[in-house]
Amino acid sequence: MKKVLLIFISYFLVFSLYSQDLVTIKLNEPSKKRESNIMEAFQNRASVREWTTDELSLQDLSDLLWAANGINRPSEKKRTAPSAMNAQDIDIYIFQNKGVYIYDAFNNVLKPLVAGDYRHLFGSQQSPIVLLLVSDTSKFKAGDSEHKKMVAAMDAGIVSQNIAIFCAGIGLKTRPRVSMNTEEIKKVLSLSENQLPLINMPISY
Q1: Could you read off the pLDDT of 15-63 as tens digits, one per residue?
Q2: How would you classify the pairing of strands 99-104 and 25-26?
Q3: Which of 1, 93, 154, 174 is the most exposed place for a label (fewest CB within 10 A)?
Q4: What is the pTM of this model?
């Protein structure tokens, strides 16, 4: 019994130390003057299946997340992606090799959540990052459960398209996917019953 307890304590200490390696990441201000053509972005948009392993630069990641669902009208607290009833229900989780972060658009930072590499929960082919779109349906103040799920899926789809067009515009690869280990993801992220993982998007150069 003592041996089991010592092993558990050792594991907990190692995990705690590793968790401390994750710190809040301050994102760059989004570059809104990037050279891109919206029609060319639509022309180049395509879902891919193969990924490179190079890490995204901080500027590319910052611009990507802002385009996905960032704050474009600070005085009104409005975002680049519309949402039903302005519920702003979509959260973006960033899975990478060191851990999982959540995008805090209002403070333009990535907040650390869980240490460890959980990208395998989205399949065997691993891109440097995977963006997970989660809707918190408790933010909808009207409608029954089925209606909330419908508008949650719509809102996630809009953010997904923002991501896809941005990637096509600057030469990143992505594809929208719904296949993932949903139950395990809920456990890892400690999601409530109102938080629905809807779409994941691997991203790479």
Answers
A1: 444 445 899 999 999 998 887 799 999 999 999 999 999 999 999 999 9
A2: unpaired
A3: 1
A4: 0.89
Look up residue 4 and give its two tokens: 């089991």
Residues 129/95, Cβ–Cβ less than 8 Å: yes
Residue 128 CA, chain-centre distance (Å), reads: 13
Structure tokens at 196: 């629905």
